[in-house]
UniProtKB/TrEMBL annotation:
Species in which this protein is naturally found: Dysgonomonas alginatilytica
Domain called OmpR/PhoB-type: residue spans: 131-228
GO molecular function, one term: phosphorelay response regulator activity
The keyword Lipid metabolism belongs to this UniProt entry's keyword annotation: no
Keywords: DNA-binding, Phosphoprotein, Two-component regulatory system
Protein name as it appears in the record: DNA-binding response OmpR family regulator
4-aspartylphosphate: modified positions: 54
Amino acid sequence: MIRLLLIEDDTNLGYIIKSSLEEIIGNYEVITASNGEEGLEALANYTPDVIVSDIDMPVLNGLEMVKEIRKFNTDIPIIFASGKNSSKDVTGGYDAGVNLYIKKPFLPEELDAHIKAIMQLKHSQTIPLPKKNYQIGEYIFDPKLYFLEYNSIKQNLTSREARILILLCDSKGEVVLREDILIKFWGVSDYFTSRSLDVFISKMRRYLAKDTAISIKNIKGVGLILECE
């Protein structure tokens, strides 16, 4: 049974999605909320396997809700389902912390496929994290507690940021293929997930900027390489 928290301000659409997943697709338990504030309240009292949310909602929109969720839960898969499909909207969603962005309208079977794919991806990433800390130039990277430390100042990382950095550290000085990163951490390689990866790498460069000997280079059309002079 997949426990799903659905946050959708269109009551009719929410009912259609809920009934389609529970009664037609099957093996779903769907709890609904009509805005981001209700979504946060539901999350405090219910432990879903996955969250599916709209973006434009009253009281608290989807972007702000996701930012709040990521402050205390970096692991739960979150899918944005929205009619807003510009590159700015999509990358904004990924930047806020969603795992997948799908466009309305969609068929129930399509949503089911996305949910199962993202949950399978999450399961595949539950492998044990490295026990050792990494030394990246003047930084210490703790992959277990998800933080970078420089001169005793810590920068917390999300689960995905930490796992991408682990991959780059394990291949330090070597090119990691962009396609491999996208498939491993997003489950799909397309324009929007590629832009999302760019957002993650830009953040990583800012986190590591205090040591000018460190660089994450983009090999255009190929991949990324972490270097320390």
